[in-house]
Amino acid sequence: xxxxxxxxxxxxxxxxxxxxxxxxxxxxxxxxxxxxxxxxxxxxxxxxxxxxxxxxxxxxxxxxxxxxxxxxxxxxxxxxxxxxxxxxxxxxxxxxxxxxxxxxxxxxxxxxxxxxxxxxxxxxxxxxxxxxxxxxxxxxxxxxxxxxxxxxxxxxxxxxxxxxxxxxxxxxxxxxxxxxxxxxxxxxxxxxxxxxxxxxxxxxxxxxxxxxxxxxxxxxxxxxxxxxxxxxxxxxxxxxxxxxxxxxxxxxxxxxxxxxxxxxxxxxxxxxxxxxxxxxxxxxxxxxxxxxxxxxxxxxxxxxxxxxxxxxxxxxxxxxxxxxxxxxxxxxxxxxxxxxxxxxxxxxxxxxxxxxxxxxxxxxxxxxxxxxxxxxxxxxxxxxxxxxxxxxxxxxxxxxxxxxxxxxxxxxxxxxxxxxxxxxxxxxxxxxxxxxxxxxxxxxxxxxxxxxxxxxxxxxxxxxxxxxxxxxxxxxxxxxxxxxxxxxxxxxxxxxxxxxxxxxxxxxxxxxxxxxxxxxxxxxxxxxxxxxxxxxxxxxxxxxxxxxxxxxxxxxxxxxxxxxxxxxxxxxxxxxxxxxxxxxxxxxxxxxxxxxxxxxxxxxxxxxxxxxxxxxxxxxxxxxxxxxxxxxxxxxxxxxxxxxxxxxxxxxxxxxxxxxxxxxxxxxxxxxxxxxxxxxxxxxxxxxxxxxxxxxxxxxxxxxxxxxxxxxxxxxxx
Length: 718
Hints:
Structural class: alpha/beta
Largest sheet: 8 strands, mixed
Mean pLDDT: 94
Strand content: 15-25%
Distance between the termini: 79 Å
Number of strands: 27
Shape: globular
Number of helices: 23
């Protein structure tokens, strides 16, 4: 078998080496006539280093690269430390290999030298490709035609092979320009730039800097808003004074560092949207040709290297079925690379916030993440904690997709699978790429599209004190019993409007009215905003003449945790307590210490560990997450009213639910716990599930026993 590799960059050269490692002949076709020392710094994380180790190349890379001990995030204007991610030996133990910072030219030279002369051809620009039942053919710019059995396009974002497969496609400009430079060590004496990622973040701009040759050569990537010219060529030189103007207000150390740049070149930040297919019979794509991504997860080169190993290993196993091998390669890689593409774009958005309030929100989130994720696995484990050498030997369905779900995961019943797939496709790659803004829009779309308010149910906008809410009930329903409901969404997403359908069923369960509350969301409104709104809404019901004995407090997920926290706050304040609490899969422990957080990560289509960390840290930020009003699991639950909690076996918040029930029961609380099988997170919001119907019937009977009907009609807000 002979594989033609179009493109002699990191992906193409690694592919050729990996193919030869598997006993397959490869020919690299590179358009450049000679190798030039172009580019600047590049980061090779554990996921890629593991592959290079397997190919016998890690020792060579170690000889010319550096091993950063940490990523240090600082404020661009003040130099104040915002966040630190430990690396070095600690990361090597955690991820299976260290992180290396290298000069791109050194890495490419190492890979180039590992490919024998007969397996590479320079000055070989591909201009056309074709295939038939027996093989593939590449036409070079010189007119020469070269045949092989397989063609893999490793020819970057402007891929000729991709154009052959898919035609003309739009590429996107991220509205960011990147200044790059390399500085010799002698120019940086006295600036205290340790061997770590020295990063600075300012409004709309960043400095990503690190050593690429030990104490010899330093790499600068300075990104700024693109409000004038769009460039994308590596050899576009730039005006140093123009770059420096963008960093006029940088703190002294960062400014002095930039002033030492001998020259700069500038590139635009471009990417393409994820695609659902990059393979056709004997032709496939790899690296930036398949999934070009923005460079802010230290992941672009790593994904190419992962691709190369997977492609070579799968092809070696299925030599007699080339089309099947290429489709399996795609099946194993496409979900993961889509996730990394979306995650990288979300990181770019997060790191380039320009509005003052959003910058504060981001920094507060980092502060919160440092409390519950001191090793920064949420930030970087997404890309780094993956051993492709092991993964390719397992089933393809184990790969995690854009929402962190194992692609092969299925439920047993058709009803359960229907709910599972609704969760699975609730968030699209573009939603994830837009950060919490995209997640909010997607979650409201998911709820309002799939769970519209039933006909004949009244939903009226209301105010409980100064807190917005919706009042939901059947027009002819008695108004005596009241549910005060808090929607889910990790304190970050969700809305009262999105919970109207569920609120209508809660109202029916108590034969009364449900008020669903639009409490303020993080990160704009961190703790204690949500609990303050909850207390205000509850007191407003009392002020309307509704006795506490006729109020059921309800919530799902974060709303369930908030419902319990509300009652703790009311008890501590000496207020009359509601008659009962109903919590579906309560997010009750924002330290994420529950065993099912790890045990079911990858099995729950509604949540994953990274998302829960992101949500929780956005909410408590600089506050202590074990505060019972943040994480009610850590509170004294003595004296709480009757508590009904439910969750699904297999969801990540199951242990939050069961531990809360156990601690409440130990404190003398009247607890009802229901755990259902073969279902999904907050299953009661899915009205078509049989377990939803039976649970709501049980909740209704339970609530009617616990609530004392109030026959007076509550007064609506003026």
